Amino acid sequence: MTPCQTARIFTYAYIFASYTLAFLSSIPTGWFIFHSQSAPACLGIWVSLSNLIHAINSTIWRHDVINRAPLWCDLTSKISLIYSTGAICSCVCIAKFLAFAMSPGAESLNYSVKLRWDVGNYVFSIGFPILLVPFSFLYSPHRFALVRTIGCETSYTLTWPTFMFFLIWSPIFGSIATFYTAYVVIRLWKTRKAMAYDGPSHGSKVPLRRLTWLCLMYTTVAFPISLYYTHVLIISGGYVPYRLEAFNGSVRSIKYDPLKRSPAFNDALALIGGLVFVTFFTFSKDMRAIYVRGFQNFRTSIGICLQRLYKRVRSDRRSVSTHTGDLELELTRIPECSINKSLHTKSIGSSNEDRTFASTSDDRTLCSRTPHKLPHPQVSSRSQNQFSVIEFEARERPSFLKAFTDLHPTSR
């Protein structure tokens, strides 16, 4: 296998892993946001967003460094810059909540206190890293960098603004999270019998033990990696005296790196954070129960929709059959009596004697007397009832000659 083939395999594996972790981490993140679990929700937002950005960038620029989307690179390069700081800040919020919950005099949080906690967590975990973005123009010599197989990245130089607004925050907040986590682990060990059933939740939908293991894993894995990454950045790049004119002169330029063939170790930091998050939340017992309940609700909704559709189809079929019966009734021909051409008369007796008037064959009227029983086609029951009514009315209707004779009696 050639080096190019190996690099291509690593690149496609990196892209697949980024898409997978972005999808798997977004599921519990949405659940945390909906249930006002702000601290793990902030961590899930950073993990999902970072992995999704890396996946899209690696897909678009896996073979070249053509500047296809400058605005996209302006945005995603800054997000990739502050990802590590945001993730560590979220871990600090989780550890702080655990320290409060494990403290001896902890009280249950009411709605107003919990709302203040949520607002503070969102402001600290998301607002503070975003606040650092405008200061990146002080130490970025280029607008952004396009790297093959990685896509858009932030270009920076080691100067004093770089340390002040970028490098020092991850180690600082990581140390704070480590101290909180150590306190939580000690309290959990001392109260292990009382916490056998997770104890009071203090408004948390996630068991406190799982949050503790998450903080412990994140501080023992992600924090040392961030320290190592900071050390590599300081050692690999030389310190440059800061001159504002040098940065303002090249702020519109773009840096291209077409020689990189596969992702490096520092590009996998988002994958490591996503893997830790997915391990503790996506396939946990609570989330599996939520998946089962969601699938059952989805299946019930599908069944209700199909049942309503079936009833609608049945009602439409009944409506069509009813209209068809009415159409057959309208097209049914009413049988008529045929009368001979010869004129039949009777001798005129008294004025009250019945007289019958016969017309020619061209005139077709209903018989005034009992009509001849003529064969007629088979019709529906409704047609037969209507025909019986018409026949009864025709039988009771007086003939024209009888009515004329009654009005003008003849004299002998």
Characterization of the model:
The protein has helices spanning 3-34, 38-60, 70-102, 111-131, 160-167, 169-190, 208-236, 244-249, 269-282, 285-331, 381-396, 400-407; strands spanning 144-147, 151-153, 254-257. The protein folds into 2 domains: 3-302, Rhodopsin 7-helix transmembrane proteins (Rhopdopsin 7-helix transmembrane proteins, Up-down Bundle), CATH 1.20.1070; 333-412, no CATH class. Helix 3 runs parallel beside helix 6. The protein is an all-alpha fold. It is 63% helix and 3% strand. The protein has 12 helices and 3 strands. Strand 1 and strand 2 (151-153) form a beta hairpin. Residues 338-377 have low confidence and may be disordered. It is extended and about 140 Å long. It has a 3-stranded mixed beta sheet with strand order 2-1-3. It is a multi-pass membrane protein. Its main location: membrane.
Short structural description:
The chain has 412 residues and is mainly alpha-helical.
- Major β-sheet profile: 3 strands, mixed
CATH architecture of the largest domain: Up-down Bundle
CATH class membership of the largest domain = Mainly Alpha
Low-confidence stretches: 338-377
Overall outline: extended
pLDDT averaged over residues: 75
Oligomeric assembly: single chain
Strand order of the largest sheet: 2-1-3
The overall number of domains is 2
- Under CATH, the topology of the largest domain can be stated as Rhopdopsin 7-helix transmembrane proteins
Helix and strand content put the structural class at mainly alpha
Instruction: Please provide the count of β strands.
Output: 3
* N- and C-termini, Cα separation: 134 Å
The amount of helix comes to 55-70%
The CATH homology group name of the largest domain: Rhodopsin 7-helix transmembrane proteins
Number of helices: 12
The percent range for strand residues is under 5%
SSE run: HHHHEEHHHHEHHHH
Radius of gyration: 45 Å
